[in-house]
Each structure stands twice: as C-alpha cells, then as structure tokens.
Amino acid sequence: MIQRIQTIFLILIVLLFMLLLFIPIYELTVTASVTKTAPPYAFLTQRTLLNLPILAIACGLVAVIALVAIFMFKDRLRQMRLCRSGALFAILVAADVAVFPQWFVHDIDPSAIQPALGAWLLFVNIPLFLFAYYFIKKDENLVRSADRLR
Q1: Among 17, 105, 111, 141, which is least packed, fewest CB within 10 Å?
Q2: Which residues contact 30 (CB under 8 A, 6 or more apart)?
Q3: pTM above 0.90, yes or no
C-alpha cells in the first residue's frame, strides 16, 4: 500500500538521490598557472554525481533498491530484506565517499579533495532505510498478531 509511512521514507531515499545528481559531492582545490613564469593560482571546482560515473552507478543501485522495495508491499518479508540490503549498501557507498575519495576523483592530490554537502547527504539515507525497516517490521508484527487471534 502506497499510503504507509515506510513508503514515505523509501520515496525520500529516491528523491534524495535524484537531488544528489545536482548537489556537489566533492570540492577540489586545483592549482594551475597560465605560463611557466607566472605564479600558480588556486581555484575551486566541484564534482557532482554526473561527473563521477562509478559513484553514480552505486548510488543509482541504492535508489533502485528503494524503488523496488516500495512496490513489494504485498511481500513484507522481502521488503524488509530489501531495506536491510539497501541500508548495508548505502553504508558502504557513504563510507567509500567519506573515507576513500581518491577512488572516485583521479589525478588529484588527495589532500586537495574536500567532501561537500552531497557527501554528507549520502549518510541521510541510512536512517531512512532503517526507519522504513522498522515500520515494515511493525506492520508484519501487527498482521501476525491478528492471525493469532483468528
């Protein structure tokens, strides 16, 4: 059923990843010089998911897991498994973004890479998956208790 609270959490996960396509994940400080004699200057550039295809695929997979879980409302046990696996995969993706940025941004000194707002928003979907799991589990317990009364 689409009107349940866990569906709201799963829809928020999908919307968050659509929003992350346009929010910067990393800010890079790049130094360059116009000529060999001119002093180098630094400029700030930003990378979004559109610039990072490997990360975009991983985040897209998390969003697809959430989208599939929305439409598994008739099979709550499978929906709970999808939420658990989505939360686990989201933890892996968020940890990779925060701890190992050089995996996604190449040919840049790792000290010049700073996480931006998008990197921190990746951590928001983990509690959303866990909240969805909690409310699906609550519905499952309610259905099982009603079955015991029959």
Answers
A1: 111
A2: 42, 43, 44, 45, 108, 112
A3: no
